[in-house]
Amino acid sequence: MVSISAERPVESERRLRAVLRTTRLAHLPGAWCFRRIAGAPSADAIATVRDVDGWCALVPAARDSGERFGLTMSTFAPDVDNSGYVGWLATVIKQRLGSGVFVVCGDNPGRGGIFDYLGYPLELAAAVHALIDELRRPVGSDPLDLDLRVFDVEQTSAASAITAGTVFEFREHAGAVEASYAGGPIGRGTLLGSRVDDRVTTAYAQVGVDGRARTGTATMRVEPAADGHLRLIEDFTWSDGTAGRNVLRSRDAG
After folding, report:
1. Looking at the predicted structure, is the pLDDT value of residue 230 above 70?
2. pLDDT band per the 50, 70, 90 thresholds, residue 3
């Protein structure tokens, strides 16, 4: 299923991790390569593609084949929004393992629609499989985890620079917290800190749409709301000593 949607990066990643958990994966055995062919492809070819000079097939590789690849097949659950899946997974593999990938897609309406073959250097096959397993794991059981959450501004004070139009995108890993924020009078802001239980200690820096740069520190308290959303009560202090409070609310529940 190919869908068109407007999402923030952390919303896309949250959705695509859920997609990956429902996707049926098969790591194909052996090595694979691209081989120029004339005439019909062999029965064991995965795919064929044509350029101006003729046809090329993705086939099992011999030991003397040039570039050898591992392959993983993804078959998606019916009616799932998997838009952006290829780009997201390729980006994560590049960032974490340094390798580019290639993708061959097909369609099988009887098995949910579009399916993908993901190709990667054979020597990285075990690392790619381990990374995919990691990405498939569900979000931890900590209800206060801020990872991949989007927050809107619920309340501000006289000393606040943010407004109702400012949106925060949070990531958290092993207690380290980072967030980017923008919107309203904020051109771009970054927040870095750490969380212990329900307390987040941070420092932030931002540039307004007017070009003014400001910095400060803040302590946040994470509170679960009755409807499953999270609230962040932020007590902040600008570098000039001015202080105030903001309250943020997560868009998603759980």
Report:
1. yes
2. low
User: What are the pLDDT digits (tens) for 160-207?
Assistant: 999 999 999 999 988 999 999 999 999 999 999 999 999 999 999 999
Q: What is the number of other CB atoms lying within 10 angstroms of the CB of residue 218?
A: 21
For residue 48, give the H/E element and its range. strand 47-51
Q: Say what angle helices 125-136 and 9-22 make with each other, to 10 degrees.
A: 100
pLDDT the model gives residue 4: 59
pLDDT of residue 139: 67
Using a 10 angstrom Cβ sphere, with 0-12 exposed, 13-18 middle and 19 or more buried, the burial of residue 6 is exposed
DSSP string, 208-250: ETTS-EEEEEEEEEEEE-TTS-EEEEEEEEETTS-EEEEEEEE
Name the nearest CA neighbour of 132 among 165, 102, 92, 183. Answer: 92
The tokens describing 104, both together, are 């061959």
Closest to 97 in 3D by CA, of 71, 124, 70, 117: 124
pLDDT at 5 over 80: no
Amino acid letter for position 164? A
Instruction: Evaluate whether 32 touches 71 at the Cβ level (below 8 Å).
Output: yes
**CA-wise closest residue to 83 among 58, 105, 100:** 105
CA 229 to each of CA 15, 203, 218, 224, 232: distance values in angstroms, whole numbers, following the listed order: 17, 24, 21, 6, 10
Residue 45 CB neighbours (<10 A): 17
